[in-house]
Structure formats: C-alpha cells, structure tokens
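Batch job 17 of 40 flagged for manual review because the log was empty.
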Amino acid sequence: MKTYCPKPEEVTREWLVVDAEGKTLGRVASEVANVLRGKHKPEYTPHVDCGDFVVVVNAEKIQVSGKKEVQKMYRHHSGFPGGFKEESLAHLRARRPIAILEKAIRGMMPHNKLGDRQFTKLKVYVGAEHPHIAQKPADLKLPEHVHAS
C-alpha cells in the first residue's frame, strides 16, 4: 500500500462563494482558511497548495460579539520611531471593511511562502456583487455554528 501525495499540477480547484452577512467574524474566517488550505479535501497535503478559490461577499456586514466593535484594536508599527499606530474595529470597518475579514483569515493561514500563495486565492468584496460570475462559483455550505445568534 502506497501513500498518495498529490502533485501541484494534479490539483483541481473549485470556486466557492460565501455570503458573510450576519455571520460571526472568527467562525467564517476559520472555515474560509480551511478551504483556502485545502483541509476539506481527502487528498490534503500540508506542503502542497491544494485549496480552492473563495469569494466572500457582503464583507461589511460581518458581525462580532460583545464589545469587540469598540474594544478590539488593530495595531502595527512602521519601523520608525513613534511609528506605532492602532485603530479600533469600528474605525477600520468605516475606513476599509474588507481588511477586517482579510486580517482575520490571514492570521489563520501558515506564515510562510505557501501561506502567502494560498492567501492569494481569497477574494473579498463589499456588497453582494463580485466579478467572478464567469467562474461559476458554488455556495460554500458553512456549519450551523457559524451563524450569529
């Protein structure tokens, strides 16, 4: 019995679409990260990019629980003295709503070259329209616990 290991050229990729309206941020992010990595497929291999493309629509309508809207802070540093910046989730949502979902999903991906390559298969859009109709994306069925209550 030999172990099957898929080669990058053998991988078939699907296009999936997720409507983020009314869903919880972290739960959607973890499901999407698993699909981008290919962990939902039986032929998953950690060192091969076997994930699918994911289109997320209505990114601005994603929900968070508790007081995260005002208490959750996004921080970064420019590398220069005094270059520390922080911004609340509410402020980031008003300025760039796509970034909230992208940052959450990116944090759940591998932090290496493979993770960077897998992350490029994520497409996030504000509103219900997206330019990937030609790829005929299927709806990604999310588990029940993903929906906000």
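Reviewer: the log was empty due to a logging misconfiguration, but the result itself is present. The longest helix spans residues 25-37. Unflagging and moving on to job 18.
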